[in-house]
Amino acid sequence: MAVVDIPELIRSDRERYADTTAPQTFQAIFKNPKDRAANFAKGSQEVCVKGRLKPEVVREVLNVRTVQHEEYNRLKQADSCKLVRTRATTAEQPARIAIQRGPHT
User: Fold this and answer.
1) In Å, how far are 6, 9, 38, 42, 95 from 30, measured between CA atoms?
2) pTM of the shown model
3) 74 or 28, which is more confident?
4) CA atoms 67, 69, 70, 74: torsion sign
5) Most buried in the list 37, 82, 95, 97, measured by CB within 10 Å?
6) Which SS3 state, helix, strand or coil, does residue 6 take?
7) Alpha-carbon torsion 27, 31, 33, 35, what sign?
């Protein structure tokens, strides 16, 4: 996952750029708004870009990984990263996800 500055040229190119924060775009991409991917995209205000981006538009690279319950609690105490719990249905056990800053290469 990366934090990027989207150039205006790409923003205006609807074939390459989809802003999931716009309700009509979100509904077109995610047919089931309760889907796990839809919830994650909505929560993190994602933008989808088709194709490559130039390296100079990348502001930050983030490492995303699933962690076990014990590590989740340890990271929560350390306050060293963003932690997310997500699940597709209320009957499921939540997935625990850690999002940490990574090296910019």
Assistant:
1) 22, 25, 6, 10, 20
2) 0.56
3) 74
4) positive
5) 97
6) coil
7) negative
Q: Which amino acid is at 100?
A: Q
Give the chain's length. Answer: 105
Q: What is the mean pLDDT of the chain?
A: 81
Q: What is the C-alpha separation between 57 and 55, in angstroms, rounded?
A: 5
Instruction: Mention every residue, 6+ apart, whose C-beta is less than 8 A from residue 14.
Output: none
Residue 28 has pLDDT above 70, yes or no: yes
Identify any residues that bridge with 100 across adjacent strands, giving them in sequence order: 63
Tokens encoding 16: 């390459």
**The pLDDT value given to residue 71:** 92
**In angstroms, rounded to a whole number, what is the distance separating the alpha carbons of residues 8 and 75?**
37
Question: Rounded CA gap, 38 and 53, in Å?
Answer: 23
Name the token pair of 7. Answer: 């150039």
DSSP characters over 22-34: SHHHHHHH-SSTT
Specify the residue for token string 């509904």: 27
